[in-house]
Each structure stands twice: as structure tokens, then as C-alpha cells.
Amino acid sequence: MKPGFLIKDPRSRARLRLSGASTTQERLAFLNDASTRIGSTLDLEQTCREVLDVAVPRFADTGGIMVQERLITEGEFPVRPTDGTALVRRVATAVAAENPWDWDTAFPVGEVVVYPPHLPQGQAMATAKTVLVPRLPQSVGDDHTKAFGREIIAKLLPGCSFLVAPLLARGNVLGFFVLLRQAVSEPFQEADVALVEELAARTAICIDNARLYSRERRTALMLQSSLLPRCLKTPPWLEVAYRYLPASDLAGVGGDWFDVISLSGDRTALVVGDVMGHGVRAAATMGQLRTATQTLASLDLDPPELLFRLNRVAQQLDSDQIATCVYARYDRAAGTLQIASAGHLPPVLVQPAGVAGRLPVLPGPPLGIGAEPYEMYETALPAGAMLALYTDGLVEGREWNIDEGLDKLCALLTGPPLGIDRICDMIVRAQCPNSERDDIALLLAKAV
User: Fold this and answer.
1) What pTM, to 2 d.p., does this model score?
2) What Gene Ontology molecular function terms does this protein carry (predicted)?
């Protein structure tokens, strides 16, 4: 079943159908029901399905929603040609008829087309006004067949009552909302126009909100991606693998980051951080903190001193945003690992024998809060041992709390040695089974 193609029971028309004799109270009840059911999410396609689920068969036998293609692909208002010949995509259709698959063949979901200006749909887009045709003549069906090359359209449309309303938002035509009643049903009347226009107006607002949401999420993801390392430069004495997964929605798109920084004297810094905001602002703060960390690392500071100075930088950047960060410095010659934490989750160390456990790093205050010093934890990192740094999106979920997530992570890391990239993939698959998640950053570093 196509997700945008709704098949409704045609037998329910007699019981649910609003007719020309419907009272004002019945029509207001219809609009109230539509208001509660439309726009439950900020997903454009879901919104269109919700609209048609309300309208068919309660108001029409079939219906469809077309949205301008550029608005879907780019999130921008397209330039509307004066003749209405705009590229539009059929986002959803609904059918309450005995032959639903004929309608799907005639008007397939996902089709991207241009409606000629002489067709009612093109007229509605060009004039930004509703078009009502009480009964479609055969000539209109033939014109549709000629325009789209499907003979079945000429058999379905003639005799239907036809109502098409433009979807208007911010003075722009987003697309159109089309409803049809078959020849066996009562035709649309002038009294129906106001009702459809109200429904179209509410639909357009929801579609525009979905457009803005999608555009902001794309912007945040693009900014995030541009500020994260594209290719980490790793020293020959460390094997490094990493994974970064953006959040599943805008509310979760934040400022997770990771880095591997070469230091003097065969030493390497390993960094993972998480800005506690969301959207473009958090991504921008993340980029600033990552740059500041790289600059401070070049001064060859101990991890506690580096985080202390980074905390001061964070307070100067934005007093309303805070972040967590863990900074580890690996000394190849000494075989040691020095770590300091600014409110971050504990690193996990996997011993050469394959046993994983949390490191007892005492977390100091998050970046952007207070002026307390940070403490340093030191441990050995022998050949074959591996350090895991991560953000909370990896270990926190709806099904478990952070402690349970940490236990699961340690269990996954415990066992016979595997390739480090394979370990990354295994952890991400196991810890993130569904699409509803926060940002995730995972950095693994194995001494060789």
C-alpha cells in the first residue's frame, strides 16, 4: 500500500456525508474535527494525508493535494508563473469509490506534473481563487487525458462534480486541494466553497509550518556537517574510528562534536563534546568551541587547565548555552592517558584482554558554568587497549536510562577483538534501534 494513497469505505458516505442541506452547526463541527486532526506533526506528507482522511468520504468521494515541487525539495516559495503552469507533486490522494485502483492509476501519488492553464487546476493556481464545476463535461476529461497520456482519466472525470481550492500562505500559492464527487453523488454547491476554502487555508498553514521546520532542520544539519571534521588526521600509533548521526528531528539537532588533535612529543588529544541546545544556534556554538579547543590544545596544556580555559571561552561566547566535554591526552612514549571531564559522561576503556569498564573520571562543571578547577584522571593505555568517548544520544533512550545504556555499551565492547570500524557499526546498530533519537557522536581510539 502506498503511504500517500488512502482507500476509504464508500458505504460510509450515506452516513457521514455533508450535503447542501447541512446545518451551520454540522459544518462547524466538521471544521472543528479537521482542526484537531490536521497538523499533528510537522511532516508535510503526513499533514496532507490527515486532511484527506478528514475530507473523504465526509465531504467528497475522492480528493488529492498537490504541492509545488520546489517547496518540497528546497523549502522555498517558488516563483508562480502568471499562467499557473507550475511544477507540482501529488503528495496524497484519498478514494471512497468502488474502483479505487482506477483512481490510483489515473492520479498516482508522487507524480510531478505541470497542469496546463486551461484546466481547472491551472486556473486555480493562476488566479489564486477556488474553481467550482458542478459537473465536468467530457471535454475536460479528454483534456486531462491529452495532457497526461492516460486514457482512464477520460472515463473517470466526466459527470463528476469538481472543486479545486488553491493552498495560500504568506501571499503565495503552495499548490492546490482538489475534491470530486462522482456522478452518483450530489454535486458541490456554492455553499460548499467557503467550507473548502477554510479547510484549504488551515491546510496551507500546516504545510507552511512543515516547510519552515524542514528548512531549519536542513540548515542546522548543513551547518553541523560543515563544522565537524571531514577526515581526522590520526597518528600511526593510534587506530581511530568514529560515527556521527544527526538527530531524527529538529528538536534534537544539537551541537555534538568530536576531534583528534596532534600534539607535540608523540602525543594526541581525543575530544568529544555536546552543546546542550538545539538547532542552528547550538551548531554554531559547537563550531566555536571546537575551534577554541584546537587552539588551546596547541598551547600544550594539561587536560584540566585546557577545560578551565575552554570554560571561560564558553562563558564569553553565549551565557545562555552550556556544553559538556571530555578531553583525553594520550602519551605514546609513556603509554599513559590523561583525562579531564566538564560534566561529560564517563569514558569507557577496553583492556587488551577484551574487558570493558567505565573510567572513574570525576566530572567538573559543564562548560559555561562557574569557575571551579577540573581534576585529572590518569591511567595506562597499553598496546591493544581501546578508549571509547561518546555523547549521551548513544546511551540514553526511551527504553532505558543512562546507567542501563552505559551497561549495555560496556557489554557490547567486551569480547574478542574485532575491527575498530566493525565495532563502531555494531554499537550504533545496537544502541539506536529506532529513528527517534538525539544526536550521536562516537569516537574509538585503539593503541597499536
Assistant:
1) 0.62
2) ATP binding; kinase activity; metal ion binding; protein serine/threonine phosphatase activity
